[in-house]
């Protein structure tokens, strides 16, 4: 694989999150990748044997690709990657940016039945619980401000006291508490926590 450092690329600071422009670029590329995957499978259905069946190809982590709803990637990305104010103020705009790139790429590839934006929105509603899980289990790791005095990595996870300390550091840090509050409020407003009425999809 190419070393992007030679092209002057730099890793973003994980605790800062991505600004709007970098989110826009990432989601445009994600839309193109999802569209290309759909077109490829449409031309060669035998490729489905290599993936789990679903609506679209989707996986932010390319080491664990599968064929599933694009909303999985979108929910995961929007929960853990943007800066707080970008997530809170530009979420719908970013979903629209993704869709426009996705639909335009499908059109260029002569895909016959391009999903509508309303269909994507419906998929997003079904996958809200996945976004919540990412915010609860992945975001605190990304925003962790200190290292455990009991150890870190696999060695630390093997020790019960270290696990407790690391968990407390992850969920009690200022960065995480500031990020999770509006996420929880949004999920509550959408009825995600009302398991009897929530019309989500448990297949992730």
Automatic annotation (TrEMBL):
<dbReference type="Pfam" id="PF02958">
    <property type="entry name" value="EcKL"/>
</dbReference>
<dbReference type="InterPro" id="IPR011009">
    <property type="entry name" value="Kinase-like_dom_sf"/>
</dbReference>
<protein>
    <recommendedName>
        <fullName>CHK kinase-like domain-containing protein</fullName>
    </recommendedName>
</protein>
<feature type="domain" description="CHK kinase-like">
    <location>
        <begin position="1"/>
        <end position="108"/>
    </location>
</feature>
<dbReference type="InterPro" id="IPR004119">
    <property type="entry name" value="EcKL"/>
</dbReference>
<dbReference type="InterPro" id="IPR015897">
    <property type="entry name" value="CHK_kinase-like"/>
</dbReference>
């Amino acid at each position: 694989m190419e070393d992007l450092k030679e092209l002057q690329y730099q890793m973003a600071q994980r605790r800062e999150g991505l600004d709007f422009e970098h989110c826009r670029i990432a989601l445009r590329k994600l839309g193109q990748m999802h569209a290309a995957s759909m077109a490829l499978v449409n031309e060669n259905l035998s490729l489905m044997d290599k993936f789990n069946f679903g609506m679209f190809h989707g996986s932010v982590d390319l080491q664990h690709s599968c064929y599933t709803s694009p909303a999985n990637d979108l929910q995961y990305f929007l929960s853990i990657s943007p800066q707080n104010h970008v997530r809170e103020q530009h979420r719908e705009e970013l979903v629209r940016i993704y869709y426009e790139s996705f639909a335009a790429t499908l059109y260029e590839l002569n895909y016959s039945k391009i999903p509508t934006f309303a269909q994507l929105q419906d998929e997003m509603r079904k996958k809200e619980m996945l976004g919540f899980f990412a915010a609860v289990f992945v975001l605190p790791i990304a925003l962790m401000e200190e290292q455990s005095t009991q150890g870190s990595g696999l060695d630390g996870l093997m020790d019960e006291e270290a696990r407790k300390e690391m968990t407390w550091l992850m969920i009690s840090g200022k960065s995480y508490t500031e990020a999770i509050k509006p996420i929880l409020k949004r999920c509550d407003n959408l009825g995600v926590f009302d398991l009897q009425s929530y019309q989500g999809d448990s297949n992730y």
